[in-house]
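Co-fold these.
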Amino acid sequence: MKSLRLAALLLGATAVLGTPPLAAQGETAVASRPWMVSTLSAERRAELILAQMTIDEKIALLHGPMAMPFGPYEMPEGAIGSAGHIPGNARLGIPSLEESDASLGVTNPMMVRGAEDMSTALPSSLALAATFDPVIAYKGGRMVGAEARAKMLNVQLAGGVNLLRDPRNGRNFEYVGEDPLLAGVMAGESIRGIQSTGIISTVKHFALNGQEHNRMTADSVIGEAAARESDLLAFQIAIERGDPGSVMCSYNLVNGVYGCQHDWLLNTVLKGDWGYKGFVMSDWGAVHELGAFTAGLDQQSGEQLDKQVWFDKPLKEAVAAGTIPVARVDDAARRVLTAMFAAGLFDREPAKEAIDFLAHAQIAQQEAEDAIVLLQNRNGILPIAANARRIAVIGGHADAGVPSGTGSSQVTNPWREPGATLRNVPLGGEGMMAAWSNVVFHPSAPLSALRERFKDAQVSFNNGTYPESAAAAAQDADLAIVFVYQPSGEGSDAPSMNLPLGQDALIKAVAAANPNTVVVLQTGNPVNLPWAGKVGAIVQAWYAGQRGGEAIARVLTGEVNPSGRLPLTWARDENQLPRPVIPGTGAAPDAPVKVDYTIEGSDVGYRWFARQRLSPLYWFGHGLSYTSFGYDGLEVKGGKTITASVTVTNTGERAGKEVVQLYLTGRPGGSERRLIGFDKVDLAPGESKRVTLTADPRLLADYDTGRSGWKIAPGAYEIAIGTDAGTMITSGSARLTAQTLRP
Ligand code: BGC
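Predicted complex below.
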């Protein structure tokens, strides 16, 4: 009886499109749907179902619309409502794909799932990178995956890992900084966390998608070795660690070819050299021709945004005409199905689940607390003295909350504690992105968090609109804290590194009135700090997420000892950048624009500064603490790679976390600067820990295009422990043997 019911369920009860049957155990079921045996490998199950599929059914898996009402298009039937939808197959019990953005939380674009559907908003990914803590990345990813699953979504369009090549890029807040090791590890762990909940994650945007100016027409020009050693290496590491079910290709061109029809990137590098078995999905509106399919793109996403749904009728016609082999359709469908089986999508009935928002807010808060970077602290002005009597809080909507980045990744409807209201500051703009361009202030107000902690003091608030009145408010205070922000988001870059909205003038006026001024930066990027010499402390709080106000207050008061480190190099101004003017400035929106990455090549960020002997304002890896750390006992081993051990000691009076950073500083060919290992350690006052770091040999090598592999020259390799990429404090060296490693 039981097996009959199960068979009926499997064979008949899948009338609702996209509803998968439960995993089968019974004999009838096994006979009719052998791919439902969950003990078989994902690859085997994909093979079994593929054998039953018609060409139409295969092609149906390879394209889909946006999952929201858009222009003349209605919400696709059966879609839950999110960024994208690939319909399921009732005959075979294939669940639909319900694709949602992104790394910072589960989005609800245009409230498509209703205004009551909220999500936890993590800090920006750049903030995550500043934690230098892969465990936090994993936990945050797991939280995002759990919320996606609770909403019956099953693909998270997360894993942004494009290297920060320009500090004006509007989307840097969605990425994980300038270094391939740090970025690859942090994105990889976040993806691993998401997928641990049975959700498919992407890694994106493949590749070299380094700016938003003319993002559909910008051509990233770079040599093969430089690409492999920088941006592609970040992807490679993220894929190795996270094993994402999907890779999202990018809008831009690379060396003259669109990212989503780039045979070399998709077929040669990703699927060939790296042996990637998942599927490549397009970015929304990034497909220009059917040729993309042969070039390695497996799925056309957000298809209404393209000129044509290439991966439907035109694909079928090409197969019928014999210009595209059926084997390639099988390959693409196999890739999609394998990722679905691996995530367990065939083995569970999607069901709405309750979300423990309080527990998730804690995860967001811990991430923010570990991410905040203390950039400057003159005369130990921070932490705020417990006996401060008058504190003037100024600007940045600090009475309402903390800002977030805009665009498709924005959690527009963050979960809020009862009574909390959302402040939205519209940015206006034109076109599709305008709908996503309100700056949402997550309702976690630094002002109330500070008032909570200084109950007996007078904590005033001035909104900072008029520098004169803000200065008057600061004048008589023990301490002035100026909150400033930079709106930043998808679809546009900052035109310069200057803080907008007259905030430099505000800081100058306040600092002139009271030298005990603390500036809290809430930005998507590094910005020019022309007043740095005039203020006491500078705190980089990034976009701090759901509990940002609380996290900032805890760092300012010393309840939390700051331990964030910069995942980027902070230029003194635009003139130090490889491209002082961002390419595309002044160009028509659809004009072709060349973005010349051959200037810095693989020397992104600190490597550029080291190569050019430039001194930035702050190096990659910089960040102060309320305690101090010392290092001794460095030991280095060579051979096939470098292994270094060092003892780190908390030499101060407070507990604190240190990021141990191991750099390559020289090789047989000359001087070099590369992060080759890092670890974050938590130390009580006086406590020591021995840390051992082993370099991924690719970080010591050069990519040799002649031999198609990573080449390590034999000889002495110089390494050092640095407190940032420009400040080495203890060094050593070891000999490596000659090697060539596969790409
Ligand atoms: C973005 C992607 C995003 C997609 C779906 C595009 O505009 O570039 O990152 O995943 O939209 O919302």
